[in-house]
Amino acid sequence: MADMDHVIIMDHPLIKHKISMLRDIHTGTNEFRTLVGEIAMLEAFEALRDLPMENREVETPLEKAMVPYISGKKMAIVPILRAGLGMVDGVLTLVPTAKVGHIGLYRDPKTHEPHEYYCKLPAPIEQRTILVVDPMLATGGSGVEAVDFIKQHGGKKIKFMCILAAPEGIKRLHEAHPDVQIYVGCVDRELNEDAYICPGLGDAGDRIFGTK
Ligand SMILES: O=P(O)(O)OC[C@H]1O[C@H](OP(=O)(O)OP(=O)(O)O)[C@H](O)[C@@H]1O
Ligand SMILES: O=c1cc[nH]c(=O)[nH]1
Ligand SMILES: [Mg+2]
Protein backbone atom coordinates (compact mmCIF):
# COMPACT_ATOMS: atom_id res chain seq x y z
CA MET A 1 0.00 0.00 0.00
CA ALA A 2 1.55 3.30 -1.12
CA ASP A 3 0.31 6.35 0.80
CA MET A 4 1.05 9.72 -0.84
CA ASP A 5 -0.53 12.35 1.36
CA HIS A 6 -4.19 11.25 1.39
CA VAL A 7 -3.91 9.09 -1.76
CA ILE A 8 -3.95 5.39 -0.99
CA ILE A 9 -3.23 3.01 -3.84
CA MET A 10 -4.29 -0.57 -3.22
CA ASP A 11 -1.52 -3.06 -3.55
CA HIS A 12 -3.17 -6.43 -3.06
CA PRO A 13 -3.00 -9.43 -5.41
CA LEU A 14 -6.75 -10.10 -5.16
CA ILE A 15 -7.58 -6.55 -6.24
CA LYS A 16 -4.95 -6.55 -9.00
CA HIS A 17 -6.20 -9.87 -10.38
CA LYS A 18 -9.84 -8.81 -10.42
CA ILE A 19 -9.01 -5.45 -12.06
CA SER A 20 -7.15 -7.31 -14.81
CA MET A 21 -10.29 -9.39 -15.41
CA LEU A 22 -12.37 -6.20 -15.61
CA ARG A 23 -10.12 -4.80 -18.33
CA ASP A 24 -10.66 -7.80 -20.61
CA ILE A 25 -13.00 -6.90 -23.48
CA HIS A 26 -14.30 -10.50 -23.35
CA THR A 27 -15.58 -10.13 -19.76
CA GLY A 28 -19.38 -10.00 -20.08
CA THR A 29 -21.89 -7.84 -18.18
CA ASN A 30 -22.74 -10.33 -15.45
CA GLU A 31 -19.13 -11.16 -14.60
CA PHE A 32 -18.13 -7.49 -14.88
CA ARG A 33 -20.82 -6.45 -12.39
CA THR A 34 -19.83 -9.22 -9.97
CA LEU A 35 -16.16 -8.21 -10.16
CA VAL A 36 -16.93 -4.52 -9.55
CA GLY A 37 -18.84 -5.50 -6.40
CA GLU A 38 -16.04 -7.77 -5.18
CA ILE A 39 -13.36 -5.13 -5.76
CA ALA A 40 -15.47 -2.53 -3.96
CA MET A 41 -15.72 -4.84 -0.96
CA LEU A 42 -11.98 -5.50 -0.89
CA GLU A 43 -11.13 -1.80 -1.22
CA ALA A 44 -13.69 -0.86 1.43
CA PHE A 45 -11.99 -3.24 3.85
CA GLU A 46 -9.03 -0.84 3.76
CA ALA A 47 -10.92 2.44 3.26
CA LEU A 48 -13.07 1.81 6.35
CA ARG A 49 -10.17 1.05 8.64
CA ASP A 50 -10.97 4.10 10.82
CA LEU A 51 -14.75 3.68 10.89
CA PRO A 52 -16.25 4.90 14.19
CA MET A 53 -16.77 2.16 16.78
CA GLU A 54 -18.99 2.01 19.85
CA ASN A 55 -18.84 -0.29 22.88
CA ARG A 56 -21.90 -2.37 23.70
CA GLU A 57 -22.53 -5.10 26.24
CA VAL A 58 -22.54 -8.71 25.07
CA GLU A 59 -23.18 -11.85 27.06
CA THR A 60 -20.68 -14.53 26.14
CA PRO A 61 -21.17 -18.14 27.34
CA LEU A 62 -18.86 -17.16 30.24
CA GLU A 63 -19.70 -13.59 31.29
CA LYS A 64 -20.94 -10.16 30.28
CA ALA A 65 -18.42 -7.91 28.54
CA MET A 66 -18.27 -4.52 26.85
CA VAL A 67 -17.09 -5.08 23.29
CA PRO A 68 -16.59 -2.90 20.18
CA TYR A 69 -19.12 -2.74 17.34
CA ILE A 70 -19.16 -0.60 14.18
CA SER A 71 -21.36 2.49 14.44
CA GLY A 72 -22.70 1.70 10.98
CA LYS A 73 -25.59 4.13 11.39
CA LYS A 74 -23.06 6.94 11.20
CA MET A 75 -21.93 6.02 7.71
CA ALA A 76 -23.15 6.99 4.25
CA ILE A 77 -22.22 5.39 0.96
CA VAL A 78 -22.69 7.84 -1.92
CA PRO A 79 -22.40 6.36 -5.43
CA ILE A 80 -21.97 8.68 -8.39
CA LEU A 81 -24.62 7.47 -10.86
CA ARG A 82 -24.65 5.35 -12.79
CA ALA A 83 -21.43 3.40 -12.55
CA GLY A 84 -20.96 4.00 -8.81
CA LEU A 85 -24.11 1.94 -8.19
CA GLY A 86 -22.09 -1.16 -9.06
CA MET A 87 -19.93 -0.63 -5.96
CA VAL A 88 -22.69 -0.10 -3.38
CA ASP A 89 -23.61 -3.69 -2.56
CA GLY A 90 -19.98 -4.66 -2.06
CA VAL A 91 -19.61 -1.98 0.63
CA LEU A 92 -23.02 -2.80 2.15
CA THR A 93 -21.86 -6.40 2.54
CA LEU A 94 -19.33 -5.08 5.06
CA VAL A 95 -21.51 -2.37 6.65
CA PRO A 96 -25.16 -3.37 6.15
CA THR A 97 -26.48 -0.56 8.36
CA ALA A 98 -24.89 2.21 6.26
CA LYS A 99 -27.30 4.63 4.61
CA VAL A 100 -27.03 5.27 0.86
CA GLY A 101 -27.17 8.67 -0.87
CA HIS A 102 -27.08 9.22 -4.64
CA ILE A 103 -25.49 11.84 -6.87
CA GLY A 104 -26.41 11.71 -10.55
CA LEU A 105 -23.74 13.08 -12.88
CA TYR A 106 -22.97 12.48 -16.53
CA ARG A 107 -20.00 13.71 -18.50
CA ASP A 108 -20.64 15.85 -21.53
CA PRO A 109 -19.06 13.84 -24.38
CA LYS A 110 -17.52 16.98 -25.94
CA THR A 111 -16.41 19.14 -22.99
CA HIS A 112 -15.95 16.15 -20.61
CA GLU A 113 -17.40 18.34 -17.84
CA PRO A 114 -19.93 16.77 -15.43
CA HIS A 115 -23.65 17.68 -15.38
CA GLU A 116 -25.76 17.00 -12.34
CA TYR A 117 -29.21 15.44 -12.72
CA TYR A 118 -30.03 13.97 -9.29
CA CYS A 119 -29.02 14.27 -5.67
CA LYS A 120 -30.32 12.85 -2.41
CA LEU A 121 -28.21 12.50 0.73
CA PRO A 122 -29.10 10.80 4.05
CA ALA A 123 -29.45 13.07 7.10
CA PRO A 124 -27.71 14.04 9.26
CA ILE A 125 -24.99 14.14 6.61
CA GLU A 126 -22.65 16.28 8.77
CA GLN A 127 -22.37 13.47 11.34
CA ARG A 128 -21.58 10.67 8.91
CA THR A 129 -18.42 9.17 7.51
CA ILE A 130 -19.15 9.51 3.79
CA LEU A 131 -17.71 7.08 1.25
CA VAL A 132 -18.17 8.41 -2.30
CA VAL A 133 -17.86 5.54 -4.79
CA ASP A 134 -17.30 5.61 -8.55
CA PRO A 135 -15.26 3.02 -10.47
CA MET A 136 -13.59 5.67 -12.66
CA LEU A 137 -11.64 8.81 -11.73
CA ALA A 138 -10.70 10.17 -15.18
CA THR A 139 -10.41 13.97 -15.48
CA GLY A 140 -11.63 14.22 -11.88
CA GLY A 141 -14.47 16.57 -12.84
CA SER A 142 -17.23 14.27 -11.57
CA GLY A 143 -15.39 13.47 -8.33
CA VAL A 144 -14.75 17.15 -7.59
CA GLU A 145 -18.37 18.08 -8.34
CA ALA A 146 -19.71 15.28 -6.13
CA VAL A 147 -17.51 16.27 -3.17
CA ASP A 148 -18.34 19.98 -3.72
CA PHE A 149 -22.01 19.11 -3.49
CA ILE A 150 -21.67 16.95 -0.37
CA LYS A 151 -19.69 19.71 1.38
CA GLN A 152 -22.31 22.33 0.40
CA HIS A 153 -24.85 20.13 2.18
CA GLY A 154 -22.74 19.90 5.32
CA GLY A 155 -20.71 16.72 4.73
CA LYS A 156 -17.35 16.85 6.51
CA LYS A 157 -15.64 13.49 6.77
CA ILE A 158 -15.44 12.40 3.14
CA LYS A 159 -13.52 9.58 1.45
CA PHE A 160 -13.47 8.86 -2.27
CA MET A 161 -13.06 5.30 -3.54
CA CYS A 162 -12.53 4.30 -7.18
CA ILE A 163 -11.25 1.27 -9.06
CA LEU A 164 -9.21 2.93 -11.82
CA ALA A 165 -7.77 6.43 -11.85
CA ALA A 166 -5.77 8.55 -14.27
CA PRO A 167 -2.95 10.62 -12.75
CA GLU A 168 -4.78 13.78 -13.92
CA GLY A 169 -7.93 12.82 -12.00
CA ILE A 170 -6.09 12.11 -8.76
CA LYS A 171 -4.28 15.45 -9.04
CA ARG A 172 -7.46 17.44 -9.73
CA LEU A 173 -9.46 15.83 -6.91
CA HIS A 174 -6.61 16.09 -4.43
CA GLU A 175 -5.93 19.75 -5.28
CA ALA A 176 -9.62 20.68 -5.02
CA HIS A 177 -10.22 18.67 -1.83
CA PRO A 178 -6.93 17.95 -0.02
CA ASP A 179 -8.86 16.81 3.07
CA VAL A 180 -10.49 13.92 1.17
CA GLN A 181 -8.72 10.56 1.30
CA ILE A 182 -8.66 8.96 -2.14
CA TYR A 183 -8.59 5.15 -2.36
CA VAL A 184 -7.56 3.84 -5.79
CA GLY A 185 -7.48 0.24 -7.04
CA CYS A 186 -4.93 1.02 -9.76
CA VAL A 187 -3.44 4.15 -11.36
CA ASP A 188 -3.41 3.87 -15.16
CA ARG A 189 -1.11 5.54 -17.68
CA GLU A 190 -3.06 8.47 -19.11
CA LEU A 191 -6.28 9.84 -20.58
CA ASN A 192 -6.88 9.68 -24.32
CA GLU A 193 -8.34 12.54 -26.41
CA ASP A 194 -11.88 11.48 -25.39
CA ALA A 195 -10.85 11.59 -21.70
CA TYR A 196 -11.03 7.80 -21.37
CA ILE A 197 -8.56 6.11 -19.05
CA CYS A 198 -5.87 4.07 -20.88
CA PRO A 199 -5.38 1.15 -20.85
CA GLY A 200 -8.54 1.32 -18.73
CA LEU A 201 -11.60 -0.87 -19.01
CA GLY A 202 -13.86 1.17 -21.32
CA ASP A 203 -17.09 2.78 -20.16
CA ALA A 204 -17.74 1.41 -16.70
CA GLY A 205 -21.44 2.33 -16.64
CA ASP A 206 -22.11 0.71 -19.99
CA ARG A 207 -20.23 -2.44 -19.00
CA ILE A 208 -22.01 -2.75 -15.63
CA PHE A 209 -25.47 -2.23 -17.08
CA GLY A 210 -25.02 -3.70 -20.55
CA THR A 211 -26.00 -0.50 -22.35
CA LYS A 212 -23.33 -0.49 -25.07
O1 LIG B 1 -13.42 11.90 -13.89
P1 LIG B 1 -14.37 12.23 -14.97
O2 LIG B 1 -13.67 12.75 -16.21
O3 LIG B 1 -15.49 13.12 -14.55
O4 LIG B 1 -14.98 10.85 -15.49
C1 LIG B 1 -15.44 9.88 -14.62
C2 LIG B 1 -16.93 9.75 -14.70
O5 LIG B 1 -17.32 9.26 -15.99
C3 LIG B 1 -18.12 8.10 -15.83
O6 LIG B 1 -19.46 8.41 -15.74
P2 LIG B 1 -20.35 8.72 -17.04
O7 LIG B 1 -20.40 10.18 -17.30
O8 LIG B 1 -19.91 7.84 -18.17
O9 LIG B 1 -21.80 8.33 -16.55
P3 LIG B 1 -22.40 6.86 -16.30
O10 LIG B 1 -21.83 6.36 -15.02
O11 LIG B 1 -23.87 7.12 -16.25
O12 LIG B 1 -22.01 6.00 -17.48
C4 LIG B 1 -17.60 7.52 -14.53
O13 LIG B 1 -18.47 6.60 -13.96
C5 LIG B 1 -17.38 8.74 -13.69
O14 LIG B 1 -18.53 9.20 -13.02
O1 LIG C 1 -12.26 5.50 -19.06
C1 LIG C 1 -13.30 6.00 -18.60
C2 LIG C 1 -13.40 7.36 -18.27
C3 LIG C 1 -14.57 7.82 -17.74
N1 LIG C 1 -15.59 6.97 -17.55
C4 LIG C 1 -15.51 5.67 -17.87
O2 LIG C 1 -16.47 4.92 -17.69
N2 LIG C 1 -14.37 5.20 -18.40
MG1 LIG D 1 -20.45 5.99 -18.50
TrEMBL record:
<dbReference type="GO" id="GO:0005525">
    <property type="term" value="F:GTP binding"/>
</dbReference>
<dbReference type="GO" id="GO:0005737">
    <property type="term" value="C:cytoplasm"/>
</dbReference>
<dbReference type="InterPro" id="IPR050054">
    <property type="entry name" value="UPRTase/APRTase"/>
</dbReference>
<dbReference type="GO" id="GO:0006223">
    <property type="term" value="P:uracil salvage"/>
</dbReference>
<feature type="binding site">
    <location>
        <begin position="202"/>
        <end position="204"/>
    </location>
    <ligand>
        <name>uracil</name>
    </ligand>
</feature>
<keyword id="KW-0460">Magnesium</keyword>
<keyword id="KW-0021">Allosteric enzyme</keyword>
<comment type="function">
    <text>Catalyzes the conversion of uracil and 5-phospho-alpha-D-ribose 1-diphosphate (PRPP) to UMP and diphosphate.</text>
</comment>
<feature type="binding site">
    <location>
        <position position="197"/>
    </location>
    <ligand>
        <name>uracil</name>
    </ligand>
</feature>
<feature type="domain" description="Phosphoribosyltransferase">
    <location>
        <begin position="10"/>
        <end position="211"/>
    </location>
</feature>
<keyword id="KW-0547">Nucleotide-binding</keyword>
<dbReference type="InterPro" id="IPR005765">
    <property type="entry name" value="UPRT"/>
</dbReference>
<keyword id="KW-0342">GTP-binding</keyword>
<feature type="binding site">
    <location>
        <position position="82"/>
    </location>
    <ligand>
        <name>5-phospho-alpha-D-ribose 1-diphosphate</name>
    </ligand>
</feature>
<keyword id="KW-0808">Transferase</keyword>
<keyword id="KW-0328">Glycosyltransferase</keyword>
<dbReference type="InterPro" id="IPR000836">
    <property type="entry name" value="PRTase_dom"/>
</dbReference>
<feature type="binding site">
    <location>
        <position position="203"/>
    </location>
    <ligand>
        <name>5-phospho-alpha-D-ribose 1-diphosphate</name>
    </ligand>
</feature>
<dbReference type="Pfam" id="PF14681">
    <property type="entry name" value="UPRTase"/>
</dbReference>
<dbReference type="GO" id="GO:0000287">
    <property type="term" value="F:magnesium ion binding"/>
</dbReference>
<dbReference type="GO" id="GO:0044206">
    <property type="term" value="P:UMP salvage"/>
</dbReference>
<dbReference type="InterPro" id="IPR029057">
    <property type="entry name" value="PRTase-like"/>
</dbReference>
<comment type="pathway">
    <text>Pyrimidine metabolism; UMP biosynthesis via salvage pathway; UMP from uracil: step 1/1.</text>
</comment>
<feature type="binding site">
    <location>
        <begin position="134"/>
        <end position="142"/>
    </location>
    <ligand>
        <name>5-phospho-alpha-D-ribose 1-diphosphate</name>
    </ligand>
</feature>
<dbReference type="InterPro" id="IPR034332">
    <property type="entry name" value="Upp_B"/>
</dbReference>
<comment type="similarity">
    <text>Belongs to the UPRTase family.</text>
</comment>
<dbReference type="GO" id="GO:0004845">
    <property type="term" value="F:uracil phosphoribosyltransferase activity"/>
</dbReference>
<protein>
    <recommendedName>
        <fullName>Uracil phosphoribosyltransferase</fullName>
        <ecNumber>2.4.2.9</ecNumber>
    </recommendedName>
</protein>
<feature type="binding site">
    <location>
        <position position="107"/>
    </location>
    <ligand>
        <name>5-phospho-alpha-D-ribose 1-diphosphate</name>
    </ligand>
</feature>
